[in-house]
Amino acid sequence: MKKIDQCSVCKTKLKEEKIIYTQKLGKEVYVVSGVPAAVCPQCGEQYLSTDTVDRLQEVIEQGEKGKRKPIKQAPIFHYPLA
Ligand SMILES: [Zn+2]
Hints:
This protein is of the alpha+beta class.
């Protein structure tokens, strides 16, 4: 697999970082922290490897079925429009 080391948007060299990945599934929002990703320091674009994406889907699926317990509950706020 070819490793992405340059941002496809702005051509900046990417930095390895641990990110917080969120995914909405039905009514629930799943949050996975400590996800390894290549992040563009210029525009913030995030690149995940296919292995990482597969693993994330696995974690979220297990969480959905209750096989994996969340490490903590995070409060979710709605952005106020008024
Ligand atoms: Zn960029």
